[in-house]
Amino acid sequence: MPSKEILSRLNRVFQKVFEDDALTVTESTTARDVENWDSLNHLELILSVEEEFGIKFSLGELQDMKNVGMLAQSIEAKTTA
Amino acid sequence: MKIQQWVRNFMESPGSIYARGGAAVTAGTLQREYRRIRACFLTRCADSSIVALYLEKDYRYLLSLLACMEIGLTYIPLRREWPDSRIEQIRRLSNFTLLLTDALVEEAIASEAPPVSRNSFAIAADKPLYIMFTSGSTGEPKGAIIERHACENFFEWLDAYLPGINPQDRLLNSTDFTFDVSLVDVGLLLLKRPGFFLSDFRDDFFRLLGELDAYRISVIATVPNNFSMMLSDRLAGRADLSSLRHVLIAGSRFPYGLYQAFRKHLAAARIYNCYGPTEATVYCIVKALEMNEAGDLAGQNVSIGVPIANCDVLLLDPEQKPVGTNQEGEIYIGGRQLMRSYLNNAVESERSLCVIQGKRYYRSGDMAFRDGRGELYVIGRADDTIKISGQRVNLSDVEAYVQRLNYVNGAAVVAVPHAQKEYLMYLFVVLNTPKEPQAILSDLKEVLLKHQLPHKIRILEQFPQNNSGKTCKKTLLASCSSGA
User: Fold this and answer.
1) If you measure CA to CA, which chain B residue comes closest to A60?
2) Is residue B364 within 8 Å of residue B392, measured between CB atoms?
3) Cβ of B210 and A59 within 8 Å?
4) Residue B138's pLDDT band (boundaries 50, 70, 90)?
5) What percent of chain B lies above the pLDDT cut of 70?
6) DSSP letters along B386-413, please?
7) What is the mean pLDDT of residues A6-26?
8) If we measure between CA atoms, which residue out of B45, B47, B63, B153 comes closest to residue B99?
9) Which CATH number fits domain B384-482: 3.10.450.50, 3.30.300.30, 3.20.20.210, 3.40.140.10?
């Protein structure tokens, strides 16, 4: 399970990318749950997450991510490795 | 009858087809399912039937489409993601006989193929092969009727023009079957038999990059924006694209920045700049880029080359008189690939089709010029000019200036009517280096006249796209009025 700190930081990235200060994401959040999660914002989201956490995802990792929880777990694995 | 034979030859010994996700579909499965889909059509339809393909994009969509081609059934490609209202509009316009759904295909495949009393429907060269719907101008889609001989001409050109593609190649079908560029993939499959991978792209550039890399794709036909994004500084280097050998670009104007990106990142690949509206089947003017500026560019316009076999292209002024070398004119397209008309839409057909010296032509609305070598360059749209303070401003012209800034990957300009200023011009840019709007404006003041300067500048990560993968200016316009 990803740490609360990672989820909190992720939430801030989401708020910034989707320009919505009230946006709250959980581990089960998917693209369908967030308004305007289109190809434009998806690209920006991934690049912003990488910048925020100082990491880089492989293309394979990105294709396996189905929800925010999987994204957070991947961040956790990369930042604690 | 050529298409019929090409499909039959292919299905007798199918090449390698990979479903979405990359799993290979065996030849036995392809042949069995094909026979049953074909039998379903033959038992449910008649000579003049139209079948609407309303399937998830996967190999069964391809098989259904091939079956229509082979047995002489006119088809309309539809997209599952389209709203019901659009499907209903198309149903009203076309009165299609059969809506082929995934459930119906599943049912046909699950049951034994029923005995059929015929092997195909009546086929003539001018029988409609498919009806492809494009955006209209009045809130109703327009269905371009493409006859069999038109598509045959295009496939024969593909076969002759790309002799280097062979069964060892791997082709990624990245466009939807509702987009005419997908016919490039189908034609190459039938005549060149490359490995055929159905993309699961879904507008996710990371996924597209991943597929190109993982499948070691060597052939792709797509729109400029996809490569503008994948080769942008923020994404370049994420994937190994060294397997790419043939990249066919069409659908919108080839940006100068993309030309430079190809030179930088894909120097070993053959890049083709292709032009053609749905109304002229697929491509009708093509340039195999030489990747040197003298051979490819006029200023920063990228050549679209010369008309392909049996396509007749005129550049005409508003009085339908030919323009001279390097003079701007509207592209009129005639010849074998020209559509019959728009389906049940006499008004739009009359507006778009005309007869000049006894030959039929389609008015493309695209403006171009021809250089001294006879090569063509698209420079904008005939309807892309606005007036600000009484002075003409061509939005594509402004875009071209913006695209020359070395930190700009792409630019789109839209104009919103404004009570005081007549129009407010919004400039949307995708950058490869961070830059503030004010700094961009300062740079533009160096190259644009005052009345050409945009009123507002918005920086995007990527342009919104329509179903065909082109920059969606309607979405950009909507974002202006919503203040988003």
Assistant:
1) B210
2) no
3) yes
4) very low
5) 96
6) EEETTEEEEHHHHHHHHHTSTTEEEEEE
7) 92
8) B45
9) 3.30.300.30
Superfamily of domain B148-383: ANL, N-terminal domain (3.40.50.12780)
Using an 8 Å CB-CB cutoff, list chain A residues near B464. 38, 40
Structure tokens at B291: 């990747």
Which residues are CB-contacts of B279 (< 8 A; sequence separation ≥ 6)? B134, B144, B333, B338, B339, B352, B362, B364
Question: Between A and B, how many CB-CB pairs are < 8 A?
Answer: 40
Closest C-alpha to B152, from B129, B177, B120, B181: B129
- Strands (E) in B121-184, as ranges, are 128-134, 142-147, 170-173
pLDDT of B152: 98
d(CA B29, CA B55) in angstroms, rounded, equals: 18
Give residue-wise pLDDT tens across range B157-170: 999 999 999 999 99
What is the residue-averaged pLDDT of chain B?
91
Residues of A in contact with B214 (CB under 8 A): 59-60
User: What confidence tier does B137 reach under pLDDT thresholds 50, 70, 90?
Assistant: very low
* A32 close contact with B: CB closer than 8 A: no
pLDDT at B390: 47
Name which CATH class applies to B1-15+22-123. alpha beta
Residues of A in contact with B203 (CB under 8 A): 38-39
Q: Mark yes or no for CB contact B206/A44 under 8 Å.
A: no
Interface contact A39, partner B, CB < 8 A = yes
B234–A47 C-beta distance less than 8 A: yes
The C-alpha of B239 sits at a distance from chain A's nearest C-alpha, in angstroms, of: 8
Higher pLDDT pick, B255 / B481: B255
- Which positions ≥6 away from A45 have C-beta within 8 Å? A13, A14, A17, A37
Give all domains of chain A, ordered by start, each with its CATH number: 4-80 (1.10.1200.10)
- The full length of chain B comes to 484
Chain B interface, Cβ < 8 Å to A: 203-207, 209-210, 213-214, 229, 234, 238-239, 460-465
Question: Would you say residue B136 has pLDDT above 70?
Answer: no
Q: Where are the domains of chain B?
A: 1-15+22-123, 148-383, 384-482
From B203, B209, B239, residue closest to A39, measured CB to CB: B203
Q: Is the pLDDT of residue B468 over 80?
A: no
Residue A45 has pLDDT above 90, yes or no: yes
CB contact under 8 A, B210 and A63: yes
Is the distance from CB of B4 to CB of B155 less than 8 angstroms? no
Q: Which residue has the higher pLDDT, B190 or B479?
A: B190
Question: Could you say which of A40, A59, A62 has the minimum Cβ distance to residue B461?
Answer: A40
pLDDT digits (tens, 9 = 90+) for B307-363: 999 999 999 999 999 999 999 999 999 999 999 999 999 998 998 999 999 999 999
